[in-house]
Structure formats: C-alpha cells, structure tokens
Amino acid sequence: MKPRDSRRLCKVYPIVLELKGKQAVVVGGGTVAFRKIQGLLEAGAFVQVISPEAIEEIRSLHAANRLMWKQKKAEPMDYEHAFIIFAATNDPEANQQVTRQAGPNRLINVVDQPSLGNFTVPAVARRGRLLIAVSTGGASPILAKRIRNDLLDAYPEDYAAYTEFLFYCREKLKKWKASPDEKQKLLLEMLDEQYVHSVEKQQSFIHILEQKVT
Ligand SMILES: C[C@@]1(CC(=O)O)c2cc3[nH]c(cc4nc(cc5[nH]c(cc(n2)[C@H]1CCC(=O)O)[C@@](C)(CC(=O)O)[C@@H]5CCC(=O)O)C(CC(=O)O)=C4CCC(=O)O)c(CCC(=O)O)c3CC(=O)O
Ligand SMILES: NC(=O)C1=CN([C@@H]2O[C@H](COP(=O)(O)OP(=O)(O)OC[C@H]3O[C@@H](n4cnc5c(N)ncnc54)[C@H](O)[C@@H]3O)[C@@H](O)[C@H]2O)C=CC1
Description:
With 214 residues, the chain is α/β, with parallel strands linked by helices. The chain is built from eight helices and seven strands. The chain has three domains: 101 residues, Rossmann fold (3-Layer(aba) Sandwich), CATH 3.40.50.720; 34 residues, Double Stranded RNA Binding Domain (2-Layer Sandwich); 55 residues, Orthogonal Bundle (Helicase, Ruva Protein, domain 3).
C-alpha cells in the first residue's frame, strides 16, 4: 500500500447505518463474503450474492431463503439497484471492475484493495443497543478483533438489558414535562453503577419514574 493510500483510510467518517429492507449486493461467495453477509442479514438487509461458486454456509442460507444467489460472474446489471455493494471475490481484477462499474456514488467495500472502495467494515462488539465499532484504518484487522474482544469483556452481557432499561427510561423522560435540570438529574442517576447489573434496581427506578411521569 502506498503512503498516500494509507493516509486516506485515516480520514473517515463513522456512521451507524440502517439497512432494513435495503438491497445489498455481495460479489463473491467465499469466507470473506460470508462474514460480510452475516452482518448484513443481522441488519435486516435484502442480500443478493453474485458468484459462480459459494461455500456451504452461503449455500445453506440460500436453501433457507435467507438470501438470493445468482450463480454466475458479476455484471453491471447485478448491482444496478444496490444500495450497498461488497466486492469480495478472490480476483483483484474482478473486484476492481465492480468498483469501476458501480460508479462513485454507491457505498462500496472492496475486501482486497480497500482504497478502491469508500468504506471498510469494523470489528463490532454488541450488547443490545450498545454497539462499539473498532477500526484500525487498515493497519491490523487482528488488532481490531482483539480490541473488540477486550471490549466484550469490559462490557459484559448485562449491558444488553441495561441499555434496554436506559432506552425505556429516556423515552419516558423525553415526554416528561419537567425542567431540563430535573430531567438531567434522572438521566445521570440512571447511569449509576448499581443499575448496570441489577434488574431489580432497574425495576424500582422504573417504578419511581412512572410515578413521576404519567
Ligand atoms: C480494510 C478492511 C476492508 C474490509 O474488509 O472492510 C480489511 C482488509 C483486509 N483484511 C485482510 C485480512 C484479514 N482480515 C481479517 C478479519 C477482519 N477484517 C475486517 C475488516 C477489514 N479488513 C477492513 C479494515 C478493518 C480495520 O482496519 O480494522 C474485520 C475487522 C471486519 C469484517 O470483515 O467483518 C474482520 C474481523 C472481524 C471479526 O472477527 O469480527 C483477518 C483475521 C481473521 O480472518 O480472523 C485477516 C487475516 C490477517 C491479516 O491479514 O491481517 C486483508 C489481507 C488479505 C490478503 O492477505 O490477501 C485485507 C486487504 C488489505 O488490508 O489490503
Ligand atoms: N477484507 C477482509 O476481511 C479479508 C480480505 N481477504 C481478501 O478477500 C479475498 C476473498 O477471500 P475469500 O473469501 O477467503 O476467498 P475464496 O477463494 O474463499 O472465495 C472467492 C469467491 O469469489 C468468487 N469469484 C471469483 N471470481 C468472481 C467473479 N468474477 N464474480 C463473482 N464471484 C467471483 C469465487 O467463486 C469464490 O466464491 C482474498 O483474495 C483476500 O485478498 C482475505 C481475508 C480477509
């Protein structure tokens, strides 16, 4: 990778993208394509795989009607209506051709030549509504994975219920006709460590909140 390219991967803008019902085209049917497909399906995207061959995991998703599979090499018409594209073949020339044909105004990820695309995929730690994405800007996907695993240890499973609790309370508080100071006090109170690991404490906070906010 040229120094210019590596700098480019540092100048990026992180977003959390909603893909429910959006058309996602994945070109290639190997293990890397499969990893990207898993994330897309979790997000509720409508996945189309374009590849002459596919690994067993992709074939069984296809058999279970979880995705569409066009068993052929990619052509421009395959991603005409795609909202997001993944060039994930093992053929650098084919991946490059996808980027050329897709044009500059699509979201496109290129698994073997990231600077040809316009986004990369981070390693992700999820605990319910809490989502932490780790990117090393192409320096080391393994480091990204390692940091993700450290974060999963630092933010254990309890955070799924806890973030659901926070969401519920915050929605209530948004509707509460109280002063910003009063709201702020409760928004900070619910971050107290005692609520993180105890569903009982969360319930009693909700009980108090529901009496205030009717
Ligand atoms: C730029 C980027 C573009 C993109 O794919 O979006 C990219 C590019 C490349 N990856 C390569 C190799 C590996 N990638 C992984 C793993 C992951 N790669 C992911 C993301 C990204 N990889 C983006 C940057 C992310 C960042 O900067 O932090 C993760 C985080 C997310 C995901 O893919 O879902 C996922 C872990 C997720 C998880 O487990 O949750 C492993 C390890 C493994 O498989 O266990 C290896 C082998 C070790 C090694 O080579 O380091 C190669 C060389 C290929 C070759 O040798 O030919 C390239 C091409 C290049 O760097 O030029
Ligand atoms: N970004 C990442 O996270 C990583 C990227 N890589 C890179 O990704 C590439 C793909 O890796 P794997 O999935 O392991 O490869 P693989 O060899 O398992 O699969 C390649 C797939 O591409 C398909 N294919 C080939 N030419 C095609 C074309 N013209 N149109 C449509 N499909 C086509 C093949 O049928 C096959 O299903 C590797 O060459 C490597 O450079 C490798 C590891 C991680």
